[in-house]
Amino acid sequence: MKFGVQLLPQDVSWSEWRDAWLRVDELGYDTNWSYDHVHAPRGDPGSPCFEGWVGMAALGALSRNAWVGMAVSGVLYRNPALLVKMATTLDHVTGGKTIFGIGAGWHESEHEGYGWGFPPPGERVSRLAEALELTHALWSGDDPSQPVDYGGRYYALKRAYCNPAPLQKPHPPIMVAGSGPRIIGLVARYADWWDTWAPVSEASRRHDLLTAACQKLGRPVSEITWSVSTDMVFDNDAARLAARVDAAVGRGTRDPAVARSRMLVGGTGEVAEQVQAYADAGVDHLLLHVGSPYDMRGVETFAREVMPAFR
């Protein structure tokens, strides 16, 4: 199993985000992630919140070990062809260690606030489908000096260039996040990586749906990296742990019971047992979300006392 960390760039200074990111890079984690939000997704949407792509590009240029990924960009935030160009540039910045993450989007506050609109889920998923088709069109040519045309209901290209091509061949891994049936179908058809938020039992059920969708297309599901996102609250002090869990649940935007079910919680032994359950289910990559203020003691303890047993 591999491990990644997403340090939420909310309610932190640039130097705090940068220094924590570089520490994760030093600790042996496989991936280092940003999020793509303009309104804070935890608690007050007006809280300070950095834009993810600009910050990630700066941090990616400083990284030495871990791969760099966006988990994930909402399809409505930018023209998807521009997003592909941005990811291509980042692939050069990171020396070919970029993961391109995209999803249908969920955070209504920022959609409305920035004037993107917030269409029904069906339209957002349809836009995601076109964005994935368009991404493959821009990244599939043997000669990047040749223009690309694409015509869809929501997006169109007319003699669009994506030159230079990304360093990775044929292209950076494409991650799609989400769990609905249509999303899973898009993962089977277009993605190299699938990420979902779910407790172990639910994650396994969803993966069964992905396996079935891949079988319909004649594609081995083993070609797709399966990651599960989870908040981590790691503390060997029981009293302190309980208070931190309550605080973490309170900052979320979802039902408290659901939020709690999707957390890694406990000291070394308890967290290791939970990670083992994901490993037994076949999860390839565990993506640990760490809110602010960053608990770097927990991140370091996890790297030292939990990760080595799953390598």
Number of strands: 12
* Biggest β-sheet description: 8 strands, parallel, barrel
Proportion of residues in β-strands = 15-25%
How many structural domains?
A: 1
Q: Radius of gyration in whole Å, from Cα?
A: 19 Å
Strand order of the largest sheet: 1-2-3-5-8-9-10-12
Task: Explain this structure.
This protein has 311 residues and is α/β, with parallel strands linked by helices. The protein has a single domain, classed as Luciferase-like domain (TIM Barrel), CATH 3.20.20.30. Helix content is 43%, strand content 19%. The protein contains eleven helices and twelve strands. It has helices spanning 14-26, 52-62, 80-93, 108-113, 121-139, 181-190, 200-217, 238-251, 256-261, 268-281, 296-305; strands at 2-7, 31-34, 67-70, 73-74, 98-103, 148-151, 156-160, 174-177, 193-197, 225-234, 263-266, 285-290. It has an eight-stranded parallel barrel with strand order 1-2-3-5-8-9-10-12, surrounded by seven helices. A two-stranded antiparallel ribbon has the order 6-7. Helix 7 links the parallel strand 9 (193-197) and strand 10. It is globular and about 60 Å long. The mean pLDDT is 94.
